[in-house]
Amino acid sequence: MSAGAQVFEEFARAALPSYGIDPDAVVTLLNVSENGTFRIDDPVQGRSVLRVHRTDYHSRQAVRGELDWISALRDDEVVKTPAYLPDLTGESVVTARNGAGDERFVVRFDWVEGSEPTEDRLQQDFRQLGAITARLHEHAKRWQRPAGFSRFVWDYDTSIGDHGHWGPWQDGLAVDAEALEVLTRCSRRVEERLHRFGKGPDRFGLVHADMRLANLLVNGDDVTVIDFDDCGLSWFMYDLGSSLSFIEHEPYVPELVDSWVTGYRTVAELSAADEAELPTFIMLRRMLLVAWIGSHIDTETAQAMGADYTSTSCQLAEEYLGRTF
Predict the structure, then answer these.
(1) 3-state SS, residue 54
(2) Looking at the domain 119-321, which fold is it?
(3) How confident is the model at residue 300 (pLDDT cuts 50, 70, 90)?
(4) How far apart are CA 243 and CA 163, in angstroms?
(5) Residues of CATH 3.90.1200.10 domain(s) within the chain?
(6) Which tens digit of pLDDT belongs to each residue from 134-178?
């Protein structure tokens, strides 16, 4: 286990008494990405999931905003997603302290059986993913957010502009002078396209913002959506870009996009203008992930992507710049 994962585990174990969980419960690391996620096996309460948040990212109010939407989605039976489990006092967000007195937010979720969809049925899964995304969007457009609701905004400025949540894409791996030149031109084109597209309520609202197949759990005919940690305000079509995270360069992507669009339209309207702008949202996400890799190089995913992700991003940028809209 890496040093970073060990730090996350300290906070996970520190949070156990707040939930009345046996200190001897088995704590198993599931993954470290933006946060640290652990499976908890307690002899009395059974299995659950603890998510330990990174520091200086989401506020307590923002974490509660995520949980409010999850609860509304469950209450309205829009999609299947795990329920959050409050602590012994009824608090949804626990503050855990380690031996040094440092604090981090912790949230506990119900355990749901299932596994990530397999690659041998990508087109079928993307059609289903499109339909699920449309249901989320339809709910977001009609849901009355509670007073004080707070989540990140994922627009140009806070994604790949001057105030990016994941840092400057210019600090990505292997962003040399040549990469800087082409990605700068691409960033400007993306900014122009998004400004023209606009932020009307039919195009911009509350989205999952990380709708990858990795965040679906399949168990027979049941599909569960997990990990709303990045949910926030963005363009609805950004969810398609996030669904293609880390595979944007693969030759089969156009077929996946077609499948996603087909699935989306089984649930909700998707205008020709929305569909035509999808390449912009794919490129927006791709450049955002260049920034993410640069600022999260201690994670396994970032290390696996490496400098090659930047070089292929430059190729995609050239293709995007050559498009005729």
Answers:
(1) coil
(2) Aminoglycoside 3'-phosphotransferase; Chain: A, domain 2 (3.90.1200)
(3) confident
(4) 23
(5) 119-321
(6) 999 999 999 999 999 999 999 999 999 999 999 999 999 999 999
